[in-house]
Amino acid sequence: xxxxxxxxxxxxxxxxxxxxxxxxxxxxxxxxxxxxxxxxxxxxxxxxxxxxxxxxxxxxxxxxxxxxxxxxxxxxxxxxxxxxxxxxxxxxxxxxxxxxxxxxxxxxxxxxxxxxxxxxxxxxxxxxxxxxxxxxxxxxxxxxxxxxxxxxxxxxxxxxxxxxxxxxxxxxxxxxxxxxxxxxxxxxxxxxxxxxxxxxxxxxxxxxxxxxxxxxxxxxxxxxxxxxxxxxxxxxxxxxxxxxxx
Amino acid sequence: xxxxxxxxxxxxxxxxxxxxxxxxxxxxxxxxxxxxxxxxxxxxxxxxxxxxxxxxxxxxxxxxxxxxxxxxxxxxxxxxxxxxxxxxxxxxxxxxxxxxxxxxxxxxxxxxxxxxxxxxxxxxxxxxxxxxxxxxxxxxxxxxxxxxxxxxxxxxxxxxxxxxxxxxxxxxxxxxxxxxxxxxxxxxxxxxxxxxxxxxxxxxxxxxxxxxxxxxxxxxxxxxxxxxxxxxxxxxxxxxxxxxxxxxxxxxxxxxxxxxxxxxxxxxxxxxxxxxxxxxxxxxxxxxxxxxxxxxxxxxxxxxxxxxxxxxxxxxxxxxxxxxxxxxxxxxxxxxxxxxxxxxxxxxxxxxxxxxxxxxxxxxxxxxxxxxxxxxxxxxxxxxxxxxxxxxxxxxxxxxxxxxxxxxxxxxxxxxxxxxxx
Lengths: 246, 422
Fold this sequence. Notes:
The structure holds two protein chains of two kinds.
Chain A: E1 2-8, E2 12-19, E3 22-30, H1 35-50, E4 56-60, E5 71-72, H2 75-86, E6 92-96, E7 101-106, E8 112-117, H3 126-136, H4 140-146, H5 159-171, H6 176-196, E9 203-207, H7 214-224, E10 227-229, H8 237-245
Parallel strand pairs in A: 1-4, 4-5, 6-9, 9-10
Antiparallel strand pairs in A: 1-2, 2-3, 6-7, 7-8
Helix pairs in contact in A: 2-8, 3-5, 4-6, 6-7
Chain B: H1 3-9, H2 14-21, H3 24-33, H4 42-50, H5 55-65, E1 70-73, H6 80-85, E2 89-92, H7 101-104, H8 114-125, H9 129-133, E3 136-140, H10 144-153, E4 159-162, H11 170-191, H12 197-220, H13 230-239, H14 245-265, E5 276-281, H15 290-297, E6 301-306, H16 311-314, H17 324-333, H18 347-359, E7 364-370, H19 374-390, E8 394-399, H20 406-421
Parallel strand pairs in B: 1-2, 1-3, 3-4, 5-6, 5-7, 7-8
Helix pairs in contact in B: 11-17, 12-14, 15-20
């Protein structure tokens, strides 16, 4: 039997299909402000490739309520289930998505015990990093240099203010790698506080597109004084969880 | 006099008022009237909302013509018994609309509680007939935002401020009793009616009857299946500040009679496995219905409000007294049993929440905080800790009166429900 999980995110839309518990298909496409349409496209390309519709479908993420088919489950429950498949032994999850950040505590059975989400503001979300990094127009060399650079403190909590703070620093001639290191450090600090308002994990599961920023992971480990583990494809865990719950 | 003549006489901005009220009928219809299985006795409260700026305002206007005064309040601590004793009116004011927030921000900081900004906006915009018909606003010192905002509001309407202490020791009780006695003298001066043992006993009786009726309604919500939607009870709690206390109590009791029958027959508004939610925290003043509407839209049912538009308003009654001195002392005693986050420490509130969660068989607690409300925002830490200790699923939500964050709130509420059902 084929079970599909479709995660309709604000930035990317993801599909995972399982057959007898084994992953047979996964794909990620940009949502382009219409995650429902992206979801339909993804399902269609799966059907074209495999010649049949999945027997069961769970939809999750930002666009879930408007999707024409499938059972609806929130991304919080799906994220916990998906992470549990990767790391059953760890309780705390930090998910840094495009539009929100969340911390989830799961039980030994993979069920949600507690969760918090950021307030209605981009500060501390994937969008925050995206906006500022895009504005910096980085080369891969500059990004690599940032790993060893001395981080410049960035104090603003607000995306708009942080952006102008960054512009001011660059105008003063502060090297880009130092600014980038500062940006990741301040984000890591904010995320660490967010995690610690729920609990103090020895090992934290980090998911969402944000987990691809190696520098952020480094700073996060330093701030939390603990280990951070990342599933193989961190943007797919909610879709995986949805498929497992289907 | 029809409504428009009345509003003109009250100096209202009719054009803005029309604009403000225009969407209300559609919202009220979809949130309230269209829902199946509502108790018939909700008809009275629906009628009041249907003409929310009419019927009651006409009454208040007529009272004033006959020589009475209208005193407006924003807080459960203000002793309305004293006002009612003199034959004048004590009413609550609209404070829960996004529409007036931006006007409030003309004179108040943006990062201030939306309740205060909404209130100020209603006065500056002249679109609340209750504000316009009022002779006085009775403020209190329950938070710094309100305390300072009264000074600005006083430029637009005479504002009397009661100084509520921040602790509950014996010297605080003495200060508050003095405040209550000063307030009684002020009301006597303003209304030109002497407060006597006889009329104050009646005032106490009237307000106690109202509180008893609300307690009876609250108590019926412990049954499963829930005999009434939380949103309907919230509306009643909101209207309890506006309506004539005697008529209101009679209507609430009539509703309770109907709910008694429902309970006997095992009839409810939600399936018996619907998650039962206790809402705690800051008030939802009229017309803030968003939170309850979302919770119930997600398939849960709100069974109680540990808020000022709920339990805090009616959980305690005023003990009767033999003479005027004792009565005023008893009136002062009641509010000090109410556990508002403006007091320190405030352990009593944790006991209230635990008791409510237990009595109402709540499956989860949603602690709601109006953005920028410091006392409740900070105290949320202790509520969370207490719920963790009691192993009650807990969700903290922060919002204002705007509509834009409904999707985000709903995701959190749905996840909580999935958590309960897992």
